[in-house]
Amino acid sequence: MRILITGGTGNLASRLLVPLIRRGDDVTLLDVQESPESAIPELEKCRTVIGDLSVKDDFLELVRDSRIESIFHMAAILSGDAEDDAERAWRVNMEGTRNVLEAARLFGVGRVVFTSTVATFGAGLPEPVSVDAPQWPVSLYGATKVAGERLGVYYHHRFGIDFRCVRLAAVTAPRGAPGGASGFCSLLYKESVENGKYDFYLKPGTRAPIIYVEDAVRALLDLHDAPSDALTRRVYQVNGIKPSAEEMAASVKSRLPHVEIGYKPDPVRDAIVHSWPKELDASDATRDWGWESRYDLDQMTDAMIAALSGA
Question: Taking the model in full, what pTM does it have?
């Protein structure tokens, strides 16, 4: 299958390409940067296009000329960066998403998988939060993701686009993106292994919904590959774990006792993380395409330390 991944050299996307290549898909990556931070052998088997998906004509030409059959739309300006540069966030997250859906409509792309986020919700919802719970995000990033979900469902109903969306918790990965409010969940491990110290920008008791990158990749693949007649909805959500900052610190220190971990809460980022639900109801995903989380906190810590240490 000819697959396009937008944001293709990013944290999650660069892990997604590995199983796609290994199973024989023809993968094209689109991003504003040439390659991911970490070395990925499978990258040599991908075509990488440097470009901005918010430039409509260029993006449409890419999809048309490459005869793309399926798109994983993963490009986005994350929460912290979106607050710092709202104009860019609007252009990439809003105009870029519309361009993806227009390309699918115009050129017969068979499927669009959209990554959404727990940040589409605000505080005060009963947990686990229903997939149909009211969405009142406190960040611009969250607002653009709500709009992307709604636009994708519209294109499904209006034009028959096979739009599929999954809301993810904060993704933890060895080379995770630092630009979002969720950056702490990867930076903790990176800084602990490489520098022996880390200061959270959260309060010790602040909890966050987190999913390890291998679980997130599997959710994307499973949703993409699920038979159409098995799906009962267009938007799903998946669960991971919900540790506090101090519980994450304890998990790291139980393995790396020399690491110094402190807390210097940033009011803006701590408030964003604090507003997120801590648990999402994933029962629809479990029923329709067999979703289940496989990593708990200590398993994630072991995997992260091993990856960052080169073990």
Answer: 0.91
pLDDT at residue 178, as a whole number:
65
Q: What percent of the chain has pLDDT over 70?
A: 97
Nearest to 305 by CA among 194, 208, 214: 194
3-class secondary-structure state, position 127:
coil
**Structural domain count, the chain:** 2
Any idea what the CATH number is for the domain that residue 184 is in? 3.90.25
Q: How many residues does the chain have?
A: 311
Task: Give the pLDDT of residue 110.
Answer: 94
In eight-state DSSP terms, residue 207 is B
185 within some domain: yes
Complete DSSP assignment for 30-83? EESSSS-SS--GGGGGSEEEE--TTSHHHHHHHHHHTT--EEEE-----HHHHH
Q: What is the pLDDT of residues 146-202, one digit of tens each?
A: 999 999 999 999 999 999 999 999 899 987 766 677 889 999 999 999 999 999 999
In a domain, 287, yes or no: no
Of 233, 236, 210, the closest CA to residue 300 belongs to 210
Please give the Cα distance from 69 to 71 (Å, whole number). 7
Of the candidates 141, 155, 189, 236, the residue annotated as catalytic is: 141
Same domain, 54 and 195: no
Judgement on whether residues 304 and 231 belong to the same structural domain of the protein: no
Classify residue 82: in a domain, yes or no.
Answer: yes
141 is an active site residue: yes
Residues 148 and 246 in one domain: no
